[in-house]
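This section describes the prediction task in plain terms. A model, or a person checking by hand, is given the sequence of a single protein chain and must write out its three-dimensional structure as a string of tokens. No templates, partner chains or ligands are provided. The sample shown here is typical of the held-out split.
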Amino acid sequence: MFRLMRNIHLILGQLFFFYAMLFAASSLVFIYRPWLKLPRSEHEQTVRVAAETARTPRALAFELMRNHRLKGELGNIKQEGETIQFMIARPGTRSDVRYSASSGEAKIRTRRDGFLETLVQLHTNHGFWHDFLPANAWSLLSFLGSVGLFLLGATGIYLWFCHHEERVIGFVILGLGLVYSLTTLVLSRTA
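The expected answer:
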């Protein structure tokens, strides 16, 4: 049993090392974002859209995705009279669209973030059911990574517990880690 757990532990460690480092780096960027000068570029364009393809916000969004290379998930839909507003977003890119039915023009303001900000957006992406297929793939990878890291920790605790001479120091380190984690969790929720 010890050999099996050791092999599982080693394989999981190698599989999810990059995943864990990606989340560690994005956590640091998330925490120290005010100190960093993260690059961002913005671009505006106006496109003409036929009224028959813009009957609903969703139809307009799919038209823009199909013919104007916008990619992402549709959100923040607002419709007031003849004006439709929404965003199409994916990690690293967000396009805000404002369409006027009377003029038949859609004004698109696209913001592109740098690599580090994109990492933060991947870190905070949640849920499984997205309109944007790569977001679903990332959600599945995140789920598998979380399960893999949990199993890595469980097999590590098992392997440590099998070494009788290291149990006392292991309990101290495990206890301190638990106290630190719970304290951080409580402070992050109350601040």
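For orientation: The two ends are 44 Å apart (CA to CA).
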